[in-house]
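Lecture 7 notes: from sequence to structure.
We start with the chain below.
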Amino acid sequence: MIRNFIGSILALVGATAAVWSPFRDWYDGRHGRDYRVQDLFTGITGTDGPLLTSVLLPLAVGALITLVGVVLRSRLLVAVSGLVVLGFTVLWMVRQGQAAGSLAVGGDGAGLGIGVALAAGGGLLLLVAAVVMSGRPRRGAYEETHAPPEEDRGPYGSDAGVPYRDSPHRHGPYDDGHGAGGPPTYPPQPGQRDER
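Predicted structure tokens for the same chain:
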């Protein structure tokens, strides 16, 4: 339960970072929302596209998968969302490197920006969350761990026809109190003859 809680928090933080990243600088001061999704497959161009068809789209899909995974406590879905976010971030880096000739990191706004770091960090955080989460319990796991103890039938096994006495001095239904077998004997009642 604690692992699922911590994993869920990490997953939500990673998804938030991924969705926020397109609104930050990705390369040379250009925001991630200015890169079209189709540019990731055909090559980076200087043409800006609408927000809904920008790099935000695959990252938002990854965040949506994360939410479903957290609700269902599914490690697999959280891991898939991390792979989606990381995959599209790496694909963008490959395309940007091809378009620019190389990728540079600069502190003055040139080169890779904070948005790429947020996207990559969010994807890695999602993968860590999938590892931390314990997921849903298996079906039947509760019954296995909380099964009632098997009835102790004694040294003769589970044969119900064999009586099990935990002590050789235990009295049975026909013991007279002195260890001898036979039907129980009672003192005669008033008005009865003693037939012993």
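Points to note: The radius of gyration is 37 Å. Strands lie at 25-27, 30-31.
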